[in-house]
Amino acid sequence: MTEWSWGGILYWAQNSSALAFGAWWWFVPPGLCIALLGTALSLINFGIDEFINPRLRSAGIATRKGAKRAARASAAGIRRATGRTPRRALRRTDAAFTRGDVILQINDLVVDYGSADQPVRAVDGVSLTLRRGQVLGIAGESGSGKSTLAYAITRLHQPPAQITAGQLLYTGRDGETVDVLALDDRELTDFRWEELSIVFQSAMNALNPILRVGAQIEDAIEAHRPGMSGEERAERVRELMRLVGISADRVGAYPHELSGGMRQRVMIAIALALDPEIIIMDEPTTALDVVIQRQIVEKIMELKDRLGFSVIFITHDLSMLIELSDEIAIMYAGRVVETGAARDFYSSPQHPYSQGLLGSFPTLSGPKKTLTGIVGSPPDLRALPSGCPFRTRCPHAFEPCPVEDPPLLPIPTVRDADGDAPAPRAVACHLYTAQQAALAEGAAV
Amino acid sequence: MKGFLRRVAFYLITAWAAITLNFLLPRLIPGDPVTRMLDRFHGQLGPNAVFALRKLFGQTSDNIWDQYVDYWTRLLHGDFGVSFTSYPTPVTTIIGQGLPWTLGLIGVCTVLSFIIGTGLGAFVGWKRGTWVDGFIPVTTFLTSIPYFWFGLIVVYVFAVVLRWFPLSGGYTPGLTPGFNTDFIGSVVLHALLPSIAIIVSSIGYWLLGMRNMMITTLSEDYVLLARAKGLSARRILSTYAGRNALLPSLAGFALSLGFIVGGSIITEVVFNYPGIGYALFQAVQGQDYPLMQGIFFIITIAVLAANLVADLLYVILDPRTRQGA
User: Fold this and answer.
1) Facing residue for B229 by CB, picked from A14, A34, A219
2) Across the interface, do A38 and B125 touch by the CB < 8 Å criterion?
3) Per the domain annotation, does A127 fall within a domain?
4) Which of A42, A120, A254, B128 could disulfide-link A59, Cβ–Cβ 3.0 to 4.6 Å?
5) B133, B212, B230 ranked by CB distance to A192: nearest
6) CB-based contact (8 Å) between A198 and chain B?
7) Where exactly are the transmembrane stretches of this chain (chain B) (predicted)?
8) Residue partners of B120: CB distance under 8 A and separation at least 6
């Protein structure tokens, strides 16, 4: 025997009944070597797995340090948020709530991605107001932070995203105001879906493929109304299905048996399950064709008028927003660059970016026009230009733009032809500095 | 229903092909089993006796087609021939004695290790990023250990040195098999050591696969929606994340069920367990062709049956596979 292998050693050890004579030292080392080598190869395999499948990385053994850091940072973020505001009832108004009252007030919300030392700011000091029974539209390109904002409002954002500052003041039907960011896990679970629900962009991915759609509507009810009998729940599910325009005998269908539009209707039914006050719609029609888009939007508006909930509608399609929103906010690079009433947007978008967005989409109704689009691509949030983040793509850029980031300030508004009170408008652009200064002076006087 | 019939037809064809191969292979191997048997008698048999033996083992000089028909006829009558090594015990008797032990020990352990492994995997995936991640290197190491080596070490430590468990066999010799506490207790005691060896060394495989699928599934939108809806962690874990993550593991489980019979050799040899793997080991050593053929037949049937079970499970768990629903 001139060449030894680990397997060979084991073979001879077994052949000579090494263990029977207590000669474990003959037997144990080669086996351990094989096991250690095998483990080493497996660990290399883990690395390859995590390289190929990024989803594994957030929980990976190789990247444990990064995950821990993110967890620590997010815990710190929550603590900070909790520290700033008292947990319950900020103020009470005894007056009954009516349409037009503020239901959700977002104050200086900041969402960061990544570790504490080098965060990427996806939502940068956003302040918005949603009124009862109204539709607040948020538009912007991909990467403008609008979906991150939607997830942050529902506090469904996943690490490495974390809310590092801001307030989310919700005023319920009873007139009590709570800061959603200060709710603990238990309160948040009760709050979500009961008061505020969300419709995701892709209904195919948001429905569990192995569960009947009826059951997916029902388990939301079951989780929040444990006292309800099975029969009442089933009746409510059928009612919800009819409400969104699906025949009630489809409760037993699986998601793959429904068309894209039907699935999105199911998503809306799930969102409606507990009669929430606010529904956030994160690009609910983007994955659908134009005809179905139309149907879904009309359904949402009909239900909104009937049930009286408020909507935050997020899309990149500004012309659709103009048709269905009461108020619109335009987002660019994580900040709001313009707000105003929807009707004002169509006639006179102020910010050059809003003008570009409006020029990029054909309207569903209305006169024909030439589509222009916006030159360049959405900004890289890790390397924003100095001053105004839009200046590199802006056709009107001039001297102050690279120097200072323009703040979002109100601009003068004109009374319209009917003599209605003008809706307030605000824009973050140096083109309007003079008007804004004049307005501020006038207010001061 | 149409889909189901198609599956059944597929299985019948596969079974036919496997059984035919099973018939052909021994006849393609150089060296004739009966000659080998005759060698043992050192030429002390007369021509009549030789003919009788050949007839007995179905090795007549008939053409191969007649042999094939004969093979099927006997197969359908449950006649696998007579074992060479334990002549004249019929093969069916030997298989009948070994099969319950193998199914009992290795079958139960395979199922247990799948259940424990995927259960732990789901848990580890759910609690990812916490201390439970420590399970992974440990179970990976246990899975990397050469299996027979691990078995021998376990036998050495617990049966030879510590004497906690019996060294070999399926039950204490002298006990009468039957439904009494003595016998069942003895069977459990004898099965414990091999069970631990099997489960410990195979659990890591299931755990890792399930954990990775679980983490992938947990980042799906429907899990996020389930959390948003306020469902209990238990419901999310079982119906939303777990059931979806389990689907890929099922195929592997079906294969491992099929290999219960074929894969039992090492365990049963190391632990001297009276199962079918041990019988196969002896059949190979003694070049006992009828016995090997019989066991291969059982292995074929086992693999096919396990696949059928997995197919059915899949249909129950994943509505997308139900055709024409």
Assistant:
1) A219
2) no
3) no
4) B128
5) B230
6) yes
7) 9-29, 101-126, 147-167, 187-208, 245-271, 291-317
8) B135, B203, B207, B210
| Both structure tokens of A279 | 């529904």
Look at residue A398 and tell me if it is in a domain: yes
Contact A37 B144 (CB under 8 A): yes
In degrees and rounded to multiples of 5, residue A314 shows phi and psi of -110, 130
User: Residues of A with CB below 8 A from B281's CB?
Assistant: none
Angstroms from A146 CA to nearest CA on chain B:
17
Which of A42, A189, A190 minimises the CB distance to B140? A42
- The distance of Cα B247 from the centroid of its chain, to the nearest Å, equals 21
Q: Is A69 on the interface with B (CB under 8 A)?
A: no
> What is the domain count for chain A?
2
Does residue A162 form part of some domain? no
Q: Is B30 on the interface with A (CB under 8 A)?
A: no
Mean pLDDT to the nearest integer, A146-167: 86
Tokens standing for A22?
Answer: 């207590």
Bigger pLDDT: B181 vs B3? B181
| Domain final residue pick, A21, A40, A57 | A57
Token pair for B206: 């299931």
Closest CB to B212: pick one of A56, A156, A189. Answer: A56
Interface test with B, best of A17, A32, A39, A191 (most B CBs within 10 A): A39
d(CA A406, CA A434): 12
CATH top class, domain B98-321? mainly alpha
Q: Sheet holding A310-315: strands in order across? A: A196-199, A278-282, A310-315, A135-139, A327-332, A335-341, A425-427, A409-411
End position of a domain, from candidates A15, A33, A57: A57
| Residue A413: partners with Cβ closer than 8 Å, 6 or more residues away | A344, A422, A423, A424, A425
- Quote the pLDDT of residue B98: 86
Residue B271: what pLDDT? 81
For residue A64, list chain B residues with Cβ-Cβ distance below 8 A.
129, 133
State chain A's mean pLDDT as an integer. Answer: 80
Domain-located, residue A171: no
Strands A102-113 and A161-171: what pairing? antiparallel
What is the reported pLDDT for A378? 78
* Cβ atoms of residues A286 and A111 within 8 Å: no
- In one-letter notation, the amino acid at residue B254 is A
Query: Does position A226 have pLDDT exceeding 80, yes or no?
Result: yes
pLDDT in tens, A96-130: 446 668 889 999 998 888 766 778 888 888 889 89
DSSP assignments along A393-404, one per residue: G-TT--TTTTT-
Q: Among the residues of A20-163, which ranges form H helices?
A: 24-52, 54-57, 64-84, 146-153
| CB proximity A39 to B under 8 Å | yes
Integer CA distances (angstroms), B183 to B40, B189, B194, in order: 39, 10, 18
User: How close is the nearest chain B Cα to the Cα of A118, in Å?
Assistant: 22
A102-113 β-sheet, strand order: A120-131, A102-113, A161-171, A177-179
> Could you give the CA distance from residue A230 to residue A218 in angstroms, rounded to a whole number?
9
Q: Which pair of structure tokens corresponds to residue B271?
A: 């632990």
CA distance A193 to chain B (A): 6
Q: Chain B closest CA to A426's CA: distance in Å? A: 33
- Closest Cβ opposite residue A55 in set B155, B216, B221: B216
Q: What pLDDT score does A66 carry?
A: 45
Domain ranges across chain B: 2-76, 98-321
Domain interval for residue A43: 6-57
Residue A291 has pLDDT above 90, yes or no: no
Q: What is the identity of the amino acid at A150?
A: A
Q: How far apart are the first and last CA of chain B?
A: 9
User: In whole angstroms, what separates CA A159 from the centre of its chain?
Assistant: 13
Report pLDDT digits (tens) over B103-135.
Answer: 888 888 888 999 999 999 999 888 877 788 788
- pLDDT score of A415: 56
Chain B contact for A79 (CB, 8 A cutoff) = no
Q: What is the pLDDT of residue A218?
A: 92
Residue A95: the pLDDT is 43
What pLDDT is recorded for position B60? 60
